[in-house]
UniProtKB/TrEMBL annotation:
Pathway: Cofactor biosynthesis; riboflavin biosynthesis; 5-amino-6-(D-ribitylamino)uracil from GTP: step 2/4; Cofactor biosynthesis; riboflavin biosynthesis; 5-amino-6-(D-ribitylamino)uracil from GTP: step 3/4. The gene is ribD. This is Riboflavin biosynthesis protein RibD. One of its GO terms (biological process) is riboflavin biosynthetic process. The active site is at E52. Zn(2+) binds at H50, C75, C84. Pfam families: dCMP_cyt_deam_1 (PF00383), RibD_C (PF01872). It comes from Candidatus Pantoea edessiphila. Residues 1-115 form the CMP/dCMP-type deaminase domain. Substrate binds at S168, R184, L204, R207, E300. GO terms for molecular function: 5-amino-6-(5-phosphoribosylamino)uracil reductase activity; diaminohydroxyphosphoribosylaminopyrimidine deaminase activity; NADP binding; zinc ion binding. It catalyses: 5-amino-6-(5-phospho-D-ribitylamino)uracil + NADP(+) = 5-amino-6-(5-phospho-D-ribosylamino)uracil + NADPH + H(+); 2,5-diamino-6-hydroxy-4-(5-phosphoribosylamino)-pyrimidine + H2O + H(+) = 5-amino-6-(5-phospho-D-ribosylamino)uracil + NH4(+). The lineage of its organism: Bacteria, Pseudomonadati, Pseudomonadota, Gammaproteobacteria, Enterobacterales. InterPro entries: APOBEC/CMP_deaminase_Zn-bd, CMP_dCMP_dom, Cytidine_deaminase-like, DHFR-like_dom_sf, Eubact_RibD, RibD_C, RibDG_C, Riboflavin_Biosynth_HTPR.
Length: 369
């Protein structure tokens, strides 16, 4: 019970790095001596101190003889920073309690073994499920090469995402649209389609001011924040340099089957992928994102792309904002899955969270395995 209490605190600290640590995982650390927290910290930004180092710096000489609670196995290798295992050993800690092993097969278990061989008592698996959940993208990328894929939709009560003429601004309230900013901010990339860009001309930018206003970030931490890469599925080369999404800070990727002759800004990259049955291979596209160290990816697109991803079992999580509105039979429904004729073949999802956001409801679901 005591271990869970302090690990819960470490998990809460870990979440503070949710907007700025990618591609590193979010990690929190709490140092306890004689029943008192003497130091705590979290990984704040890639390239800077890991959670354990920040906690050790906060504890000073009180770390000697302490118990250290850390949400993820301490690193055992030199990367952008020195190994945390060495720092913990040098600090003279007595015990290290770990939420989960590092999922990287080249590292997993090595840190625990080094600590044990140094005479430190080691426990792991405390609140493992929670530890993995806050780093679901990191764990998935390390095990499969693919990022964790979220699909976000805004729909009416009768499951429509736009009027027949394409009008969709705004189905949901300002509260829901502000809430979406947290999902954008936590993802390394945002995928959309040329159809969505041509219809809505979005920017797909994170509105940091909205997050700051709602106390999700502090003014001092804004320097560590970045805009996710915008990835546009544009097989027919329909996007031009004049679209709003192109003329925004940060990088934009155009996923295509051929180059065009347009002059593009330096932040725009055309990526050519092979076509099969007149479609871009979606798994190959996601593997490309994984190879570029993207842990979490958000999709903001329409019914056709939603159906394509569902059909290939590529969606890990659904975020659906439901507004108390009825759009009617002639409107565009949220998903198109060609060839689905039997109820037994219908994809099934499980609710993991239901929350009221302003006048709307946010539904969070995962595929039923």
């Amino acid at each position: 019970m005591i271990d869970k209490m302090y690990m819960a605190r470490a998990l809460k600290l870990a979440k503070r790095g949710g907007f700025s640590t990618s591609p590193n995982p979010n990690v929190g650390c709490v140092i306890v001596l004689d029943g008192n927290i003497v130091g705590e910290g979290w990984h704040e930004k890639i390239g800077e101190n890991h959670a354990e180092i920040n906690a050790l710096n906060a504890s000073g000489n009180k770390a000697k003889g302490s118990t250290v609670y850390v949400t993820l196995e301490p690193c055992s290798h030199y990367g952008l920073t020195p190994p945390c295992c060495t720092a913990l050993i040098n600090a003279g800690v007595n015990r290290v309690v770990v939420g989960s092993k590092d999922p990287n097969p080249k590292i997993s278990g090595k840190g625990l073994r080094i600590l044990h061989e140094a005479g430190i008592e080691v426990s792991h698996g405390i609140m493992m499920k929670e530890s993995k959940k806050i780093n679901c993208g990191f764990f998935k990328r390390m095990s499969t090469g693919l990022p964790w894929l979220q699909f976000k939709l805004a729909a009416s009560l009768d499951g429509c995402i736009a009027m027949r003429n394409g009008e969709s601004k705004w189905i949901t309230s300002i509260n829901a649209r502000n809430d979406v900013q947290r999902y954008r901010a936590r993802n390394s990339a945002i995928i959309t389609t040329s159809t969505t860009v041509l219809s809505d001309n979005p920017s797909l930018m994170v509105r940091w001011s909205s997050l700051e206003k709602n106390n999700f970030i502090s003014s001092s931490s804004k320097k560590s924040l970045h805009q996710p890469i915008r990835v546009i599925m544009d097989r027919r080369n329909q996007i031009t340099p004049q679209h709003k999404i192109i003329n925004q800070p940060g990088k934009t990727w155009l996923i295509r089957q051929s180059y065009d002759d347009n002059v593009w800004p330096d932040n725009v990259i055309q990526i050519i992928l092979p076509i099969c049955n007149q479609k871009i291979n979606l798994s190959q596209m996601l593997l490309l994102l994984g190879k570029n160290q993207m842990n979490n990816v958000l999709v903001e697109a329409g019914a056709t792309f939603f159906g394509a991803l569902i059909k290939e079992n590529l969606i890990d999580e659904l975020i659906i904002y439901v507004a108390p509105k009825i759009l009617g039979n002639d409107s565009i429904h949220l998903c198109k899955i060609p060839g689905l004729s039997n109820l037994n073949d219908a994809p099934v999802f499980l609710f993991t969270n239901i929350k009221k956001i302003g006048n709307d409801i946010r539904l969070t679901l995962v595929p039923k395995k």
